[in-house]
Every structure is written in C-alpha cells, then in structure tokens.
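Meet our chain:
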Amino acid sequence: MKKIKGVIFDLDGTLINTIDDITDSLNAVLVKYGYKTYTPDECKMMICDGPRVLVQRALPKDADDTLTDKLLAEYKQYYYDHACIKTKPYDGIVELLLNLEKLGVQTAIVTNKPQPTMEFLIDKLFKNINFVSLAGFSDAVPHKPDPYQTNQVILKMGVCRDEVLFAGDSAVDMNTAKNAHVAGVGVTWGFRPKEELDKSGAKYIIDYPHQLLDII
C-alpha cells in the first residue's frame, strides 16, 4: 500500500463520545409524548443511520410518517440545543489529529450527523484542527454507506484511493469504506462491538487512537 495521505473519520463513536447527549435528547422528546425511553447502551445500537432512522427505531413499529416527522423535528432541535453538554473527544483523539497534521496527512469527516449539529460540535471541540472537509447528513445528498460524500472528499484531498483510510466504529462505516474502495479502519472504543467491525470487512481494527499512526 502507498503511503497514506488522507484519513476520513466518522464522528460519533469515533472522534467524539456523543451517546449521553443523544440519549438524553431522544428521551426528552419520547417522555413528552409518553413513549418508552432508552439507555445509552440501547441507543448505541440504534444510531449510525441518521436521525430519522434513530427516531423510527425508538418509536413503536406502527408509528406513521406524520408522527415520525413531528418527533424528528423536535428531537433535532432539542439535540442541537443540548449537543455539547456531556459530549467530548475520546482520549487521545486530539493528539492523534495533531500528529496526523504534523505528518502532512489530510483529515476530513464524513458523518450521518446533521450538518449544522456536526459543524457546531467541531467548532466547539476541535477549533485547532484543520479538517479538509466536513460532510454531514443532508437530505440533498446520499448518506453513508453510500460513497458519494466520501468520493467528494477524496477528490478534494487530491489523492488516490489507495492513499486513503476511512476510520469508523460501525458496519455503516466499514461498508462506506468498501463502497468507496478505500481501506476501512474499525475502532473499538466507539458504539459497536469489535465483532461487527470484523464481520463488515474492516481491513484494520485498532483499540486506541495512537495505533492509527502505525498504519500510516
């Protein structure tokens, strides 16, 4: 493999631990309407496919689109207003990003978190990191595991696919990597088990952020 020149990261469960704020926000809306609430561990298995799918999974199976739309809108607003209460980068992530920058490796984010919330969190938590691109969830473009946004980031980086890694904590991320024909790096400190990363075709699996540097 050629020397790595770019690393594309997932956000939730990879760079930052957002699960408590996501769970609290989802439960705040569910309680308001008398629906079942969820633990952080349960929510870990419900996210990764975007906010609408999260709300759909949280509601009873017979919930119609009108109800889903209503709660989705309230959840997105509540979460935006409470997105950085408990959320913080995982240990070693800031150091990893700074080391990659020193090595001349470009970094970017492709996430299924809505674009405005993602940009808000990056501004709060990673002010000193120079990401090449920040690609969040939008109804205007296909989202992970579709490779569209990843392909756009690779074009912006101006690198070859065999010079790129895609790092994430879920099967969605590893499938995104496969669909974009880049090497997937599964991280075990996030929301999904190591077995999921292995089964979904991760080329590498790492337990600590600094281990990514051994692949570069």
In short: Residues 17 and 68 are 26 Å apart (CA to CA). The radius of gyration is 17 Å. The longest helix spans residues 65-81.
